């Protein structure tokens, strides 16, 4: 697939990296020549120094001949203009990054489609949604919902107190009456393992478990986690993510926000009806104590500084806060934050890249989700008529070893997959795949 990326910022660079690894033909346009030189030295792609809103430069990049045009410059006006121009030049599908939630309203999305922008992406909105979902459970590193929550993927850190510690996956299944959940992946010592029946759960494993809402309590019990409802939330940083999160939490939670910029905090206080906004430096321990950090059920750090977010979450954990969430945009810090047990990690580049990635998959895809601690992807694929995946039960399908089928949505009902499960046409299938397995499993769904 020929892909043009307009804008070599954080999101654009990460999307370019992801598309190069998937062996797509990638062109990256930006007006910063030095930045493009650095990217060109590390990835197999073509870079063009130019303006993302210049018809001449877009023609030089052959925008009229591309399968996917992704506009992610820092300003949404440039993003929208770039995508519109690419469509007029002949680009097949265009995606534009925005930072105005109003544009995502159905009637406005349709308006932009008429102008030539096929899809709008708001990374901060997607990040806020993921954080809000993660606050539903304490003890869970990441929570991803499929088909309106009919299937749920939990990322859980296994400790010595877990009843399943040192048991194999097969032994755990034998303890239950039927298949209650699927362990689709294990992150151990920084490596991603696609587990099979003889794999054992070890201390410090980060496991990805797919289950249904009905069986969530048993998953928590088996992994040694206690149910605890979050009610009081402190947000450090009045960024766009912080603001969108506060709006999402609304009246269901008691929300307090700490913002260092006095003028910004005053504006946020006027805009956020159900949030108490405090002007102050969140790095100040005494301030956090005075504002009731010890009484908080969850602490979310979403400042523009990854180091501050990590350190603040460490402090919150020491103060007894049960749930911590840190926005970590510096990719080099993600492994560190995971190893020191920060809790839930959010990276809007990864979230945005996964959202865009579904447009590069030939099979029908209803969801693509990133796993922060792994380079793997979780996809919700739709089985095509007469596709290879529907021909036999899973045990006889000879699935790639770098792929795991977790569950199925059929006629609105969730099914946890076993070897005897046979996928049918139009089933939505949740698949865990390493990069090396995505193309292999994709072909089986066509």
UniProtKB/TrEMBL annotation:
Domain RCK C-terminal: 141-225, 366-446
Designated name of the protein: Trk system potassium uptake protein TrkA
RCK N-terminal domain residues: 1-121, 230-351
NCBIfam families: PRK09496.1-2, PRK09496.1-4, PRK09496.2-6, PRK09496.3-2
InterPro entries per record: K_uptake_TrkA (IPR006036), NAD(P)-bd_dom_sf (IPR036291), RCK_C (IPR006037), RCK_C_sf (IPR036721), RCK_N (IPR003148), Trk_Ktr_HKT_K-transport (IPR050721)
Source taxon at top rank: Bacteria
Record GO cellular component, one term: plasma membrane
Keywords: Ion transport, NAD, Potassium, Potassium transport, Transport
UniProt GO molecular function: potassium ion transmembrane transporter activity
Gene3D superfamilies: NAD(P)-binding Rossmann-like Domain, Regulator of K+ conductance, C-terminal domain
């Amino acid at each position: 697939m020929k892909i043009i990326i307009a804008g070599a910022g954080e999101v654009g660079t990460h999307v370019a990296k992801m598309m190069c690894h998937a062996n797509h033909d990638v062109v990256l346009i930006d007006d910063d020549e030095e930045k493009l030189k650095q990217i060109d030295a590390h990835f197999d792609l073509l870079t063009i120094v130019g303006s993302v809103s210049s018809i001449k430069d877009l023609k030089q990049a052959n925008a009229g001949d591309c399968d996917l045009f992704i506009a992610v410059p820092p300003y949404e006006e440039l993003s929208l203009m770039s995508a519109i121009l690419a469509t007029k030049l002949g680009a097949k599908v265009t995606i534009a990054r925005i930072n105005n939630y109003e544009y995502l309203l159905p009637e406005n999305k349709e308006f932009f489609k008429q102008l030539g922008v096929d899809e709008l992406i708001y990374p901060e909105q997607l990040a806020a949604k993921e954080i809000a979902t993660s606050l539903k459970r304490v003890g869970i590193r990441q929570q991803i919902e499929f088909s309106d929550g009919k299937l749920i993927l939990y990322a859980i850190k296994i400790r010595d107190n877990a009843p399943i510690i040192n048991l194999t996956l097969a032994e755990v299944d034998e303890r239950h009456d039927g298949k209650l959940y699927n362990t689709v992946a294990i992150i151990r010592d920084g490596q991603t393992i696609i587990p099979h029946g003889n794999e054992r759960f070890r201390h410090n494993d980060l496991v990805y478990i797919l289950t249904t809402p009905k069986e969530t309590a048993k998953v928590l019990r088996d992994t040694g986690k206690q149910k605890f409802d979050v009610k009081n939330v402190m947000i450090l940083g009045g960024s766009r993510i912080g603001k969108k999160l506060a709006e999402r939490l609304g009246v269901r939670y008691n929300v307090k926000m700490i913002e260092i910029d006095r003028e910004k905090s005053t504006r946020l206080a006027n805009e956020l009806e159900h949030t108490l906004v405090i002007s102050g430096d969140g790095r100040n321990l005494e301030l956090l104590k005075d504002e009731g950090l010890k009484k908080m059920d969850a602490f979310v750090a979403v400042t523009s500084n990854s180091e501050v977010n990590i350190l603040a979450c460490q402090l919150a954990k020491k103060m007894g806060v049960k749930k911590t969430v840190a926005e970590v945009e510096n990719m080099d810090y993600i492994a560190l934050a995971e190893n020191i047990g920060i809790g839930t990690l959010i990276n809007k580049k990864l979230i945005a890249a996964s959202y865009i990635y579904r447009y590069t998959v030939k099979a029908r895809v209803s969801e693509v989700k990133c796993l922060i601690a792994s380079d793997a992807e979780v996809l919700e694929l739709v089985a095509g008529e007469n596709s290879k995946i529907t021909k036999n039960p899973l045990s006889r399908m000879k699935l790639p070893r770098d792929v795991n089928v977790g569950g199925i949505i059929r006629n609105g009902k969730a099914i946890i997959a076993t070897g005897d499960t046979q996928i049918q046409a139009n089933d939505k299938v949740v698949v865990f795949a390493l990069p090396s397995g995505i193309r292999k499993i994709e072909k089986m769904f066509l």
